[in-house]
Amino acid sequence: MTFRITSLPLAPFQSLFALDDAALAALGARRMIADAPNSAPCRISLADAEPGEALILLNHRHLEDPSSPYRAEGPIFVREAALEARPAPGEVPDILGRRLLSVRAYDADWMMTDADVVEGRELGDRLMQWFADDRVDRIHVHTARRGCYLAEAERA
């Protein structure tokens, strides 16, 4: 058994770059320019923006199930040049592999079954361990320090 890391889909975010700053602010979003390497991980492309690259910073509900006490939302970056990432089964994208991560396992009812803080280079092994448990349906990956949602993992 293996896993697949999935990004957010591009379609719901594509139109944001056509909005002016006032329209973005009305949505609680901001136009940003990446100012340092590895500082703005895009949740669509699963790649960090390069310094000088345009992004939108916005709030996103990544756990939407209204019946779950774990429903959650938070800030995400979307690169203007984003294309949807499609990591191969068992592949850990670089933006995950080089960060300290907070990882949360959920069952099919969106109840948390386990959680851990993991060095990114150890993520693949930890995902395999969790997916060996039939109760685990999906896993959310967050930055450990700021707690921002990065990606989801599912069985492949």
Write structural notes for this entry:
InterPro entries: DUF1203. It comes from Brevundimonas denitrificans. This is DUF1203 domain-containing protein. Pfam families: DUF1203. The protein has 156 residues and is mostly beta strands. It contains three helices and eight strands. The chain has one domain. The chain has a five-stranded antiparallel sheet with strand order 1-8-7-5-6. A hairpin with an 8-residue loop joins β3 and β4. The chain is globular, with a radius of gyration of 16 Å. It starts with a strand and ends with a strand.
Helix count? Answer: 3
For the record, the count of structural domains works out to 1
How much helical structure, as a percent, in the residues? 10-25%
Which class of secondary structure composition applies to the elements?
A: mainly beta
The total strand number stands at: 8
Can you summarize the main beta sheet?
5 strands, antiparallel
Mean pLDDT: 96
Q: Uncertain runs with pLDDT below 50, 5 residues or more?
A: none
Oligomer: single chain
Q: What would you call the shape?
A: globular
Helix-strand pattern: EHEEEHEEHEE
Strand order of the largest sheet: 1-8-7-5-6
> How far apart are the first and last residues' alpha carbons, in Å?
7 Å
Q: What fraction of the residues are assigned to beta strands by DSSP?
A: 25-35%
Q: Radius of gyration, Cα only, in angstroms?
A: 16 Å
